[in-house]
Structures are given as structure tokens and as C-alpha cells.
């Protein structure tokens, strides 16, 4: 159940998810950190941050194993997202990769499965596999990641491509290029945008502009950076933290309401794009 005080996004699949979730990039890389990472994810779930994003790429399956442990016994609370490597995204490869992810995650289904970025396999082949997984109940819905407008338009021409529900991209105050064309393109079609690295892997916390706004609310720069994204229609932010207190801090960002004056100050410090720029990736 989603905490009714958290903002939500309703996907084109019909699922309603929290607009603030839990990222797991770099989890599962150090066995000494595993217990702390599991605890942080469980703390997030306790706070209502029930969307958990992971990928077979993260620690080569290690992050999925961390998530599997964290959600053990509470799978039905979670909206579970994972991703397939592009080089695994042939028809048979996608299905096999999904099965491996399900095993690591200790579950029989994903709520959302994403193509991590474009590779050599034809989109029609990948989409065919994703649609097959959906019809089998192995995934609830599917989407893509790191797709720019031209990629999305090509995807829409593939049989079944219109069933794409999410595009996960790098998006934060210092990476606003998607606002020029990709974000409005997705918004017009009801495709949610999932923002990874929403605090620029911690670098945004050193911004003086964010610090000034945060001070007025007795908040933190990270909370302001997240609140900025949560103001956007159809945007889901997935910050990653292995620190339980930081997870709680992130959760509080959902209750921070920025004023028009705040947003103007952020535009001055982090100008929105005036022209098309290549899609940023980390």
C-alpha cells in the first residue's frame, strides 16, 4: 500500500506508484555493506517508498540479490523494477535474463522490466520478448531506459511498442536537457519518466543555490533537488542510499512544496535548456 501522503504517478498500465522510489545502483558490490544496504531498503519500504529499481547490470546481479533479501516476505508491498542488458536483449536472451533476475530477486514476477539502453538487437525482437513475458505474467509492464526522442519514435513504430510505460533517464537539476523535448514528448503520450541519479550522485548537495532555498524550509539541498523533480508531471525520482537516515531524509522531500519564487531561483542557478542537447548518461 502506498502512503497517501506521498505523491504518486499512474502508469499507462494502470498501476499507481509512488513518485519517489528507491534506487540500487552500486549496491551489492561489497559484501561488508550488504546488511546495511538491506536495512536501508527495508527502511524505505517502511516509509512507503515501495518502488524499488534495480538491474542485472548492478554488481552483475548483486544488487538484485540485495533487493531479494530486502523484500523477502513482503513482495506484495513492492513495485519491483529491473532491467535487461542490451546485449542480452534478443528474443530468447531477454526471456532468459528475466528468469535469472527473478531467481536473484526471489520472486515469480517483475512489475516493470526495462531495456537498459539500446544495443545491437532489433527493437522488434526485444519488444516481442517483453510482450511475451507480459502475457505469461512474468512482468506486469515494460519500458525502456536511456531512450531519446528519436529512439522513442522508432519504438512506437514497432508492433507492441505503444505498450511502453516508462522511460528511465538521467534527469536532475544539473541535467535538464530532457525538458526541451523528451519530457514533454513522454508527458503527451502518458509515458512516465523515471529520473535516475536525481541528486547527481550527491554532487548537487554542494550547490549554494540549493542550500539557500533549503535553509528557508529547514530542509537539505538534497531534499530541494528531489522536490524539484516531484513538481513535474509524470516524473518518478529514484535516489539511491544505503543510509537509513538519508532514506528518511529523501522521503521527507515529498512533503516539501516549492514556491514559484523558489523555482525561478533554481532556473537562474540551473538554466533550463534553450535547445536540443544529446541525451545525457552516466
Folded structure, characterized:
It contains ten helices and nine strands. With 282 residues, the protein is of the alpha/beta class. The strands form two sheets. A seven-stranded parallel beta sheet has the order 3-4-5-6-7-8-9. A two-stranded antiparallel sheet has the order 1-2. The radius of gyration is 18 Å and the shape is globular.
Keyphrases for this structure?
13% strand, two-stranded antiparallel sheet, 282 residues, alpha/beta
Short description:
37% of the residues lie in helices and 13% in strands. It has 282 residues and is an alpha/beta fold. Strands 3-4-5-6-7-8-9 form a 7-stranded parallel sheet. A two-stranded antiparallel ribbon has the order 1-2.
Sequence-ordered SSE layout with sheet pairings:
Elements: E1 8-10, E2 16-18, H1 34-46, E3 51-53, H2 62-70, E4 79-84, H3 91-105, E5 112-115, H4 123-135, E6 142-145, H5 149-156, E7 164-170, H6 182-188, E8 192-196, H7 208-216, H8 221-230, E9 235-237, H9 244-252, H10 260-269
Helix pairs in contact: 1-2, 1-9, 3-4, 7-8
Please give the largest β-sheet.
7 strands, parallel
Q: What is the overall number of helices?
A: 10
Give the CA-based shape.
globular
Low-confidence stretches are none
Instruction: Give the rounded overall mean pLDDT.
Output: 96
Order of secondary-structure elements: EEHEHEHEHEHEHEHHEHH
Strand runs, count: 9
Which strand order does the major sheet show? Answer: 3-4-5-6-7-8-9
The secondary-structure class comes to: alpha/beta
Strand content: 5-15%
End-to-end Cα distance, whole Å, is 32 Å
Helix content: 25-40%
> What value does the Rg take, in angstroms?
18 Å
Amino acid at each position: 500500500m502506498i502512503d497517501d501522503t506521498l505523491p504518486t504517478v499512474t502508469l499507462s498500465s494502470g498501476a499507481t506508484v509512488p513518485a519517489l522510489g528507491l534506487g540500487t545502483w552500486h549496491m551489492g558490490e561489497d559484501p561488508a555493506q550488504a546488511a546495511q544496504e538491506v536495512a536501508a531498503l527495508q527502511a524505505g519500504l517502511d516509509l512507503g517508498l515501495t518502488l524499488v529499481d534495480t538491474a542485472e547490470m548492478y554488481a552483475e546481479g548483486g544488487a538484485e540479490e540485495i533487493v531479494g533479501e530486502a523484500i523477502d516476505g513482503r513482495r506484495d508491498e513492492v513495485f519491483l523494477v529491473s532491467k535487461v542488458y542490451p546485449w542480452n536483449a534478443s528474443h530468447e536472451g531477454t526471456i532468459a535474463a528475466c528468469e535469472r533476475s527473478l531467481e536473484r530477486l526471489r520472486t515469480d514476477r517483475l512489475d516493470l522490466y526495462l531495456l537498459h539502453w539500446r544495443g545491437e538487437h532489433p527493437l522488434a525482437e526485444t519488444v516481442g520478448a517483453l510482450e511475451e513475458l507480459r502475457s505469461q505474467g512474468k512482468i506486469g509492464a515494460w519500458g525502456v531506459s536511456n531512450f531519446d526522442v528519436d529512439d522513442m519514435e522508432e519504438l512506437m513504430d514497432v508492433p507492441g511498442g505503444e505498450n511502453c510505460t516508462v522511460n528511465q533517464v538521467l534527469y536532475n537539476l544539473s541535467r535538464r536537457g530532457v525538458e526541451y523535448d523528451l519530457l514533454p514528448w513522454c508527458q503527451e503520450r502518458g509515458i512516465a519518466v523515471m529520473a535516475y541519479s536525481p541528486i547527481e550522485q550527491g554532487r548537487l548537495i554542494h550547490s549554494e543555490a540549493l542550500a539557500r532555498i533549503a535553509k528557508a524550509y529547514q530542509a537539505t539541498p538534497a531534499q530541494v533537488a528531489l522536490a524539484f523533480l516531484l513538481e513535474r508531471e509524470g516524473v518518478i525520482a529514484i535516489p539511491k542510499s544505503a543510509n537509513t537516515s538519508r532514506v528518511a531524509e529523501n522521503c521527507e522531500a515529498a512533503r516539501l512544496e516549492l514556491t514559484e519564487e523558489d523555482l525561478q531561483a533554481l532556473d537562474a542557478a540551473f538554466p533550463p535548456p534553450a535547445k536540443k542537447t544529446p541525451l545525457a548518461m552516466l
